[in-house]
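Record type: monomer structure entry
Structure origin: computed from sequence
Chain ID: A
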Amino acid sequence: MIFYICTIIGLILLAPILLSFIKAFKMVLLFKRPISLFQGYRNFSKLMKKETIVSTQSSQITRVAPFLVLSPLLVAILFLPPVVDGAYYVSFVDAFTITGLISLSTFFLMLLGLDSASSFGGMGSSREAFIAALVEPAMILTIFSVSMMAGNLGVGNAGVNLAEHFPSKHMASFIFSGISFFILLMAENGRIPVDNPETHLELTMVHEAMILDITGVYLAIVEMASSIKFIIFASLFASLFLPFGLMYPWYIAVFIFIAKLFFIAVIVGLLEVNTAKLRLFKVPNLLGIAIVFAFLSLITFYVLGA
């Protein structure tokens, strides 16, 4: 139980470092001077000291929504698969619960954008709803598919089973679901090619447009939620689709898990540097590919057994 609590605290503390690492890695690839890995903590400290200004046109939702954006993600992080063999983990949570908690956080973020009473906030919220409507069904299918291959619908149990008995005879289904989940990781976290987290052009914003009108503590909480969401997806990908290292001694298992998280961050950075942001109405084509791969994974598993 102590290791379980330490793992959760460690993931929360590692979340800003992982996003800073992606940005620093991209700057190195672009021959720029990289930022510090602790830049996320510096930004958080700076925002906590700034004045919190709320528009007179907004309601109490703006004061409550940032906490409601963060809360479901803090609950979701409790349900991730274990990092070390024998460590405590929650075994009864399935794909619907994980996806529902992440969707609840997204809903309150959209509500925050709408409550600002600005055209950009409403535009960002409508775009986020458009993307989320395609991401969430594909995410349920993908996690459900890999859970079936693991022989258990519980996400925690699936991670343990995959590490102990890798389903090599279902390799085709496993690869299809892995491709689908990685596309969803990019889309749900607002990464290129779906969204550009570093853009300052309002007409192309999705996530940033919803938080243009919040400052200070509220913005710090939303940015924290964004980093925690990324590490939830990265941890799920590391546990379900890179299921190795769990059976080693705890210090080696922890090192391998952190290495897997940074490996995922490197892949995200490489893709962002080498691809361009898609036009909004081409995003469904990309997310449609994720849905197709999720269905292919299920069909290949059930029909062909491969």
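Annotation 1: The mean pLDDT is 90.
Annotation 2: The chain has one domain: 2-304.
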